[in-house]
Amino acid sequence: MEALYRDQGGLSMSPIETSRTYQLWVINDTEDVISAGVLGNDPAPALFTSTGDVAGFALTREVAGGVVSSEGGVGALITVPDLSVS
Hints:
Elements: E1 4-7, E2 10-13, E3 20-28, E4 33-40, E5 54-63, E6 74-79
Antiparallel strand pairs: 1-2, 3-4, 3-5, 5-6
């Protein structure tokens, strides 16, 4: 599944059918997966905040309205490097 693509403005997301939505998930340092929000079927850039340590993000395609736990395939997975100083 290809959800992200590069265009002149940077990264964009391919529109999907109206019965589906993109959903953003935060993966914390204990690997809990928490919904950060529903982006719609043809999303524009959006700002999300999260508290605590973040290990990564996942982008999935779900039924319109979103879900409590992912039922769709992962379109993108972004890991966050550990920037702690030893």
